[in-house]
Design brief:
Strand order of the largest sheet: 1-10-9-4-5-6-2-3
CATH architecture: 3-Layer(aba) Sandwich
Number of helices: 5
Distance between the termini: 36 Å
CATH superfamily: Glutaredoxin
CATH class: Alpha Beta
Number of domains: 1
Strand content: 15-25%
Amino acid sequence: MHSALARPPVGALSAPGRRRRLLLSTLALLPLAACGPDTPPLNGMDLSSMPTGDFQLQDTEGRQRQLADYRGQTVMLFFGFTQCPDICPTALTRALEIKSLLGADAAAKLRILFITVDPERDTPEILRAYTQAFDPAFVGLRGDAEQTRAAAQSFKVFYQKVPTGSSYTMDHTALTYIIDAQGKLRLALRHQQTAEQCVQDLRTVL
């Protein structure tokens, strides 16, 4: 292990050759979704019995941010990096589709947060340009190495630097976390889910 961070429950990793690896060792620790006769099964994972993480980071305008700043909105939280070749752009493109499928009223209450796990390269300017290329309403968040590590550990997110010749890429958890308007962690959307499946889960859980 190159990191003391907990491995993600389930998730694809972004580096080449690792994108589809499922980290099954902690799968048994995940809470099971409640499935009553009137409750459709989730496509993602019910995390409502797990503690909600937090972060102390800066947005791309330099303002200090924490999860409580978004109370009253449903938060869709993703960890990634701007040079990610496919996992991150796919997740953010799906977030746009989810907003469209939810409809204007519900979408207005949804806040998409993107936390970089590569603050060394993701400057505020680069992070702002990246997130706003998908949607001007998307919020990019970053911190120093210690703040990034603390935020990731808080949500049990795994990430590590992987050398690639003269540069590097990043392995990282590819789950999208959903926090409800009361600030409670409710759900993790899998990277493999379609936008339609994500919306089904959001409507079921929230």
